[in-house]
Amino acid sequence: MEAIGEIWDIYRTCWNETSSVQRAEKLQKILTDDFEYKDPNFEVKGYIQLSDYMKQFQEEFEGASFVTTDINIHHNRCLVNWNMINDNNEVLSNGTSFVLYENNKLKQITGFFKEN
């Protein structure tokens, strides 16, 4: 499997992958079987629930995507800073994700950002 930074990039791009099938296939390859995701608004388990949440995100924030601004990696953990941007590359929001990974797959992600 790719380095964790490359895996994070695959995960990040899944947030704006419109094909449910392709998104789910990508997520299944980079997430552990017991994957968990939490943010201030939602909590999901497994790649199917995460893919469904990503679809809801796309419907609510049409055209939005994420860019990584900084990533720190050590001891099977990552701290990732990111911006959510619109089609004009304007920053809509920013946040941080704490990531735990195992065997080069994402195991847990906890996202932190200001709620609207």
UniProtKB/TrEMBL annotation:
It holds the Pfam family SnoaL_2. Residues 21-102 form the SnoaL-like domain. This is Nuclear transport factor 2 family protein. It comes from Flavivirga aquimarina.
